Amino acid sequence: MAITGDIEYESENSQFEDDKEGGDDKEHSSFEIVEFLTENRDLFAVLGVFAALSVYIPRLASESGQSTVLNIGFASSVAIFMVVIYAICKEADKQYGVVSDLPSYMFEVDSGSFEFIMFAVPFVILIVSLLGIGTNYLASIIFIVKITVFICGFSTVVFGFNIIEKVSGIGDINMMEMGILGFIKYFLLTVSVPAFVGLISSYGIGYNIQRYGLGLSTVFNITTNNPGVAIATSFMLGSLIVAVLFFAVSMLLPLIYSYERTMPFIKSQLR
After folding, report:
1. In angstroms, how far is the first alpha carbon of the chain from the final one?
2. How do the domains of the chain map onto residue ranges?
3. What is the mean pLDDT of residues 158-186?
């Protein structure tokens, strides 16, 4: 058994060293255009689809006259196009370190640097040209950003709950196993998070309405008026909606706690 254990340990240790050496070789490997395109052909296929849509949709909008809907479609296509570009850049950095070692790729003279420059320059020009077209559809792009931020606002209360649970450690305790004082503490913490988020969001929305004249409908309007304020209002509106829902549910906790604590006693008395 001792010999077997030593052999297993040496095998695992050698495997770890091989993985480490392989990871170092992969980290410092030179950029190879054929290998990169082959390994990420699926991403480039998706990129081509949305690049084609970004060119086709504006032409279709001018022919059909349905500019509003198609403009939003164009902005969505550009957004997905940028997400795919981010994924490609992430894979390139993961495989060859082209982002972390960008100066060496730009200024060192070797085949990998040459292939990288030959690929990166037209790729960046493609991105810039498409973004240049996108500036003509700024209202639709802002609209998509507002909707995205509005949905992201839903997670604000959950994020607050996670912080409270980590700080207080109360999330590891079953609510039904708490005493009265423990439940009161749990209830106050649970109610305070949506109440705080709701108050801050309400104040921010009210301030924006009074200062800039932007109502809640600005979240769903396609306009370029005060885009920063409109985006902030969208986020606060999403936070406010979820805060109200969480607060309403939190107010039911005392009823649930009382029911679960008293029902066993009532059932025992009825037997």
Report:
1. 60
2. 31-143, 153-270
3. 73
